[in-house]
Each structure stands twice: as structure tokens, then as C-alpha cells.
Inverse folding.
């Protein structure tokens, strides 16, 4: 079965790619990502398009981007996605996989939106206990950084931190270990789903639209200052 994978640039979609490859029976033929056309960044995660493209190269999977405006009304988002899915269906895609974990309303929304497309929705991580899943990701070699934090749920100081066992231990008990309720979002820079790491360095911490964003830069980015920032790949 040929499938697209809804790709946020974060740990859950990256681990979904790994799990689908391990399970077999599904060929991930493309990574489907909404990109804010105003800023050239992955929607919500605020990851630069260049890093998104580097992920696709490292994963060895073609990237399919869906440009959306900022702000993006829901009807505009749905129309943009419907067009992208129609094109995928015409190109022989049979399914779309999502990295959702346990939010029933999100799954129901996806299934409802997918029903008229003729594409089958897949949820390779669904129902996995999130603490165990987070530890499995880390133990399995996935490396990620927090790129967005909701300060209503998690202190702003967590923006930019590594997604590792120390982070899991430091999370308040009410915060989901995978950030499934939107407490935080990540950028995956290494792991078994990639042929090589995507080296990044720390950029600015920005407060915008009620969220705290940690910018990441490609390690070779020419905008780096003479005083080299700490490499985000270091542990």
C-alpha cells in the first residue's frame, strides 16, 4: 500500500515513519507537510523550510508541501488539504498515516475528512501509553529538540531543550510525556528513520501569538555569528 505520512517535522511523525517501515506492508511514498507561506516555516512547529527539506533527504522520502496563509482559517486549510489529497489519490496514493496518539476528537476529525477522498487513514502509534512510547523513542535513538512550548502548560524555559530522559523527568505531572495535548512540539534531527543526522544550532527564543518558539538553524547557515552557538546535536 502506498501512503503519504502527515509530517510535522517532530518526533511523533518521525517515529511513525520508523514504525511503518518496521511493520511492512506500507510504502511511505511521501511526506505531507503544511507550510506557512508567509514565514516559510512548518505550521505550528515553526521549523524552517530548509530543515524540513533536509529531513526529507535524510529520510529518503519525497516531500509534498501544502502552502497555507497566516493566519489560516479552517475552511482555507481544509480546501488546501483536499486539493493535495486529490492530487495524491490521482498519483496512486492509497492511504495517509498520522502520528496521533490518543485524542479521540482529532482522530474522528481526520477520519471524517478522509472519508470522501477514497484514501485510508492509518494511525501507527495509536493507543500506545505515551510515557512508554517517549522512552521507546529515546532508547531507539530518536533525537529531537523542543521548538514550540505552550507557556500555559509548560514553563517557557523548556523551549529549545532536548527531548531526552532528563526532559521527561522534569516535566510536570500534568504534561503529557509526548506533548500530545499541544504542550510542546519538536524537531527530530536524528534517529533510525534518517540515513544521517540533520545538524542544527540554537537560534533565538521568540514569544509570539501566545507561544514560545525556539528557532533552529542549519549548522552551516551563513547567518551564524563569529561566536559559534552551541550545536544542538551535542548531548
Amino acid at each position: 500500500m502506498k501512503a503519504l505520512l502527515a509530517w510535522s517535522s517532530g518526533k511523533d511523525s518521525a517515529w511513525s515513519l520508523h514504525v511503518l517501515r518496521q511493520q511492512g506492508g506500507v510504502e511511505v511514498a511521501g511526506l505531507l507537510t503544511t507550510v506557512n507561506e508567509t514565514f516559510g516555516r512548518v505550521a505550528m512547529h515553526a521549523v524552517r523550510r530548509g530543515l524540513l527539506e533536509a529531513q526529507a533527504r535524510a529520510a529518503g522520502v519525497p516531500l509534498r508541501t501544502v502552502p497555507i496563509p497566516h493566519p489560516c482559517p479552517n475552511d482555507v486549510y481544509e480546501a488546501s488539504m483536499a486539493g493535495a489529497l486529490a492530487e495524491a489519490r490521482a498519483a496512486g496514493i492509497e492511504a495517509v498515516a498520522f502520528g496521533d496518539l490518543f485524542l479521540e476528537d482529532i482522530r474522528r476529525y481526520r477520519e471524517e475528512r478522509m472519508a470522501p477522498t477514497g484514501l485510508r487513514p492509518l494511525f501507527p502509534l495509536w493507543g500506545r501509553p505515551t510515557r512508554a512510547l517517549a522512552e521507546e523513542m529515546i532508547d531507539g535513538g530518536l533525537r529531537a529538540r523542543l521548538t514550540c512550548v505552550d507557556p500555559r502548560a509548560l514553563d517557557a524555559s523548556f523551549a529549545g531543550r532536548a527531548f531526552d530522559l532528563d526532559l521527561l523527568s522534569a516535566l510536570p505531572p500534568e504534561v503529557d510525556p509526548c506533548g500530545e495535548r499541544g504542550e510542546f512540539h519538536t524537531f527530530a534531527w536524528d534517529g533510525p528513520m534518517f540515513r544521517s543526522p540533520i545538524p542544527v544550532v540554537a537560534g533565538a527564543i521568540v514569544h509570539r501569538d501566545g507561544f514560545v518558539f525556539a528557532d533552529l538553524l542549519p549548522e552551516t547557515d551563513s547567518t551564524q555569528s563569529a561566536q559559534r552557538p552551541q550545536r544542538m546535536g551535542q548531548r
Q: What stands out?
A: The chain has two domains: 2-122, 142-218. Helices lie at 11-23, 49-59, 74-90, 104-114, 130-139, 165-170. The first strand starts at residue 2 and ends at 6.
